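Worked example 2:
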Amino acid sequence: MKNRKYEGIIPALYACYDKNGEVSKERTKRFVRHLMGKGIDGIYVGGSSGECIYQSVEERKKTIEWVMEETAGQIPVIVHVACNNTRDSCRLAAFAQAAGADAVASIPPIYFKLPEHAIAAYWNTISDAAPDTDFIIYNIPQLAGTALTQDLLRTMLCNKRVVGVKNSSMAVQDIQIQKMTGGSDFIVFNGVDEQFIAGRIMGADGGIGGTYGVMPELFLRMNALLKEGDCQRALEIQTAVDRIIDRMCACHGNLYAVMKEILRRREGVDIGCVREPLPQIIAQDMETIDHIVTQIEEALSRYCRKRRE
């Protein structure tokens, strides 16, 4: 059961910028320390939350290096390495392995709709660039434009480095299908935060999520309750979390811009804003963000009191 280290609550790291909008070593390390202090089970670097498609390969390398320095082997690190071409993806995968990452992950190629044999070749070539590192498929068809079919997954399972899937499709049944196809030792992460407990009940081993970073305690508590068999209490927290996410998505600013402002207000962790063309928060968002902060505090007080004392 070599893959059990990937279980649990794994926040997707937000891109951390300085006042000039450049990737920041100090702020990246500060945010990683903050998350580790919450008791997370791992960290996911360079994905959607890391604004990967708006960063250069060199910027992404810097973030990987800083995260590996700060985590220092204390928690598993999964690095998303997909770029818009195979060559850069391989460069990033090789760098992640050299830095000590536990696994590399990748979405399928975006923009051009490729046949499944080309997608498999893309993923396998990336995996070959990090031959001593686990590989995790990132299934997010609503953004990538390509879904992970059973046939494609079976093809990828011929690669022994493929240990799991981060499943962010909206169909929670996909988690069950992927578990059944991959076998008992195959890892599947729930990637849609609003259906975390549904994903876990359908067989997900844990979750990788973008909203975990502003309320990790709530996801940790949900996960603990599910392990205890208390699904009703877990559902109460899920409902509270979904209301928070719904309100965050109602802002003018991009979701990550909103969450970074929440982090700054609630925790005193300043990691800058988002990179254009993602929209920044505006003055009209501030009242909504105040309400969100209150919602999070109320949920923590109600469901995580013992954890916080």
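The chain has one domain: 2-308. The mean pLDDT is 95.
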